[in-house]
Amino acid sequence: MKLIPLILAAFGATTAQAADSIIVQSTTSTANSGLYEAILPTFKDTSGITVNVVAVGTGQAIRNAENCDGDVLLVHAKPSEEKFVASGGGVERTDLMYNDFVVVGPANDPAQVASSASISEALTKIANAGALFTSRGDDSGTHKKERALWAAANLTPADASGTWYRETGSGMGATLNAAVGMGAYTLTDRATWISFQNKSDFKIVLEGDETLFNQYGVILVNPDKCPNVDATSGQAFIDWLLSDAGQAAIAGYKLDGQQLFFPNAPK
Length: 267
What we know:
Elements: E1 21-26, H1 28-32, H2 35-47, E2 50-55, H3 58-66, E3 72-75, H4 78-86, E4 90-105, H5 119-129, E5 133-135, H6 141-152, E6 165-167, H7 172-182, E7 185-189, H8 190-195, E8 203-206, E9 213-221, H9 231-242, H10 244-252, E10 254-255, E11 258-259, E12 262-263
Parallel strand pairs: 1-2, 1-3, 5-6, 5-7
Antiparallel strand pairs: 3-9, 4-7, 4-8, 4-9, 4-12, 10-11
Helix pairs in contact: 9-10
């Protein structure tokens, strides 16, 4: 869990709090990138509502929301989000913004991933070479995507767990640090990579495959299932994120001149 400066985040906290405060169960990438620090003060100024963010992997965020520990869910694993809504855990899922995933690795690129025409070819080269690869292994949105990519390439890297395939069980920042330390490849969302400070000689070795698209969604936790949900304030936050003002705030967040997230809420 990441404790965000300016925002109090308590793992497992309930929403038994003041009416002008809500809890958002969130993926780590939106927190690690600094997005919340950039946009939440604007929302509070316009609404008077304080947003407390619990930043964990998508799988854990969904489980927390299922346990009624939160008012809003903001994650990036659409099939799991849709399942959460279908089961009655959430009211409605709406597209919010997107970016993409990239494969990063050492500059010498031992598996020659950079010459790959697709992510499937890149992963096949890594597996065939037995090149080190670090996986989050934490049921996060990135981990879910990674597993789907290996499956699409007809590969089962878990069979090599502990050899060339290393599962950290940690967040993206820790997994990137492990990759840099070991000289290993890894899959990361672009926003976290841009904001990551310990790149060493690492670089993006594979990007641009359409299957690396990374969609984020936002959901109000169902107050019919979880009576402690502050539906009014939670929906106000969602409405702001989806509004022209919220979408502009997301688009306006940049690091080193690079836009990290691209709003695509339905009009």
